[in-house]
């Protein structure tokens, strides 16, 4: 269960006698404050602040803890992220600490002048003197606290569990926290910090690693993976595998147990509204409209044709009339007669007439007429070809050559037409065969098509890859750069050769490149622009296109692989296919136990320290007691406490780990704290309620008189 | 301030009766708080440590005695191989194909998970 903040202002502050200490558990993740002797802290909140700017007034305000995110819409939070007073597990920023204490005391109900109660506060193991003295100063000077005591949270937790009988007076406390993990040995009820040990891995790192893995795997849903959401996911779904690599092998093999261990988080997804195929009536209506339009167009075309025919006929008639008139007129009177009409000579009129009649025939008639014409012309025009050369005059020779030329070109055209017809027939035939094959065995046909498609696309990709030299992946190599070991295609080899020969010393010791004009031609040869011209649409690509279009028709599920170059990152959602439900499903498989594993293996994150199980061994070693019995006593009472100890499977794993490093046969017993999260506060509360607590605190006078050295050596005596 | 913000008492008031010195007196606006306070590294460096007692540094855990297990950066399986170009670890050929098709940004982020990214300062 994730911790829920409680920040109701308490109303009974003034009712509590001023001898009752206030107990503060100043944790890296949560701040807990309450009264000594009580079972639960009164006020609990996340130990962070934010300083957003109010949108309308523009003032920067301080917000402590986490609040309803809806209220943040009035603030501009872009420049303010959550900030903590802690650096690792040590308080360093006392301005933030002051705000947090302000908030804590305020919600506890503090009023009047000054906090008039002794304070018991938690700190980390071996807190640096600087932090401790600054904290004491803050409490004394700003809040007017009469007396202060500092203790370690893990120790309080162990003492409480000892009182409850969960663990013995000799033992080990293993406390995975938020930023750090500690192991503290206890001898006779007192912690021995010489044997304690700290690794800088905690719940924060687990959550952070889970968040990074998820955003890298599902970049499309990055905005969904907020810190709070990922923490919730971690608390709900993460567990610790008894043997990490055995679990991963399960997942790698795809065993059914792996399936059952995979959790899916379905993000809300609305399928796009399916467009109903247009119904029958729609189709009929559309077809009718199209028909009508076609009809209209045809009618217009007809009308235009008729009008053109009429025009031409009129023109023709006019010209004929003119010609007849010309025949009647004398030869000398022609120019003056024609001056009115705009034609200069009879030939012109005649040629105009022939042109007009031709176009009339064209508009009226069919293609067949035109086609007939070239057939007629050979017989008309090629009369000179058969006549042998010596019988012709010079002019006629020229004529004959022209005719030969025309004849050969006409024949060539014929042949080309023939070939085209044949090719079409051939294609028709092949299509027919294809269709037949498809009809008789649709599945097999489809499969074959798919296979062919894949082969072709791979071939093309490979060729492309060769051409672009290993590709633009990773951006690690400059594009087109010639590196060692990368295959050069023919053009690049040529270029290299040119470069080397040009640069090569042509004997004589002096570089004379460029003295002659021809040298600069080299650059034209080397130009890359010429590279890509040689490959036209090669047959493979054409075939590929044909196959992919066929497949698109036939197979509903086929997705054409668009040419995205080489990179088809598995990460990008191909946007040309409608997003399915699956894309919106976040799958937590290996991540479930990979992230908490870093508690035992900080190497996964790159932190070069021991994990939980080995820490116990280090701690015992550091105690350097030669007493085997004592060591056995220690391992018999190992307490797991702290916020990050709530993962299922952690106890068994810790026990197995410790068994591996201790001598064979030592008794090992790992127990979990009754309440890993609140036990520290409860232990501190019970401690502060004891009568002898007073003697363990120090006052402002003590602080100023006894000096730094004394403060450094100050330590609580935990068994009262 | 909007009504609901005031009602929720989200914002920290600037005056408290129980404080002897108020915040605005203590911290003038001139210096930003990050500059004013020493970070942990500086705190540790400036501390004086008497030899016998345990202190913040002496408590640190040593590096692990066992050889580090190599885990695939992308899938989390055991990864006996690593890609010389990107330095990522991978478990099998399919993962390798994925690695080679990753843009550089993702490669650096995967490496950063392991604290192995190239950091240019």
Please compute the radius of gyration of chain B using only Cα atoms.
25 Å
* Average pLDDT figure of chain A: 81
N-C termini distance of chain B: 42 Å
Strand content of chain B: under 5%
Give the biggest sheet of chain A.
6 strands, mixed
Q: What is the CA-CA span between the terminal residues of chain A?
A: 33 Å
Unreliable sequence segments of chain A:
366-380, 470-485, 562-576
CATH homologous superfamily designation of the domain at 1-48 and 84-156 and 676-712 in chain A: ATPase, nucleotide binding domain
Explained architecture:
The complex is a heterodimer of chains A (720) and B (121). Chain A is α+β, with helices and mostly antiparallel strands and 720 residues long. Chain A contains 23 helices and 20 strands. In chain A, the strands form 6 sheets. Chain A has a 6-stranded mixed β-sheet with strand order 3-2-1-10-11-20, sandwiched between helices. In chain A, strands 12, 13, 14, 15, 18 and 19 form a 6-stranded mixed β-sheet that branches. Chain A has a two-stranded antiparallel ribbon with strand order 4-6. The longest helix of chain A has 49 residues, at 280-328. Residues 366-380, 470-485 and 562-576 of chain A have low confidence and may be disordered. Chain B has 121 residues and is mainly α. Chain B is built from 6 helices and 2 strands, in the order ααααββαα. The mean pLDDT of chain B is 85. The chains are: A alpha+beta (720), B mainly alpha (121). Chains A and B meet through β6, α1, α2, β15 and α4 of A and α1, α3, α4 and α6 of B.
List the helices and strands and how they pair.
The complex is a heterodimer of chains A (720) and B (121).
Chain A: E1 22-26, E2 30-35, E3 43-46, E4 49-50, E5 53-54, E6 63-64, E7 75-76, E8 86-87, E9 90-91, H1 94-108, E10 119-123, H2 129-143, E11 147-152, H3 153-164, E12 171-176, E13 181-187, E14 190-191, E15 197-199, H4 203-217, H5 227-237, H6 244-253, H7 256-261, E16 263-266, H8 280-328, H9 334-341, H10 346-364, H11 367-381, H12 394-440, H13 442-467, H14 490-503, H15 521-526, H16 539-554, E17 585-588, H17 591-594, H18 612-623, H19 628-636, E18 638-640, H20 650-661, E19 670-672, H21 679-689, H22 693-696, E20 698-699, H23 700-713
Parallel strand pairs in A: 1-10, 10-11, 12-18, 18-19
Antiparallel strand pairs in A: 1-2, 2-3, 4-6, 5-7, 8-9, 11-20, 12-13, 13-14, 13-15, 16-17
Helix pairs in contact in A: 2-23, 3-21, 4-5, 8-10, 12-13, 13-16, 18-20
Chain B: H1 3-8, H2 23-26, H3 33-36, H4 40-46, E1 81-82, E2 89-90, H5 93-100, H6 104-113
Antiparallel strand pairs in B: 1-2
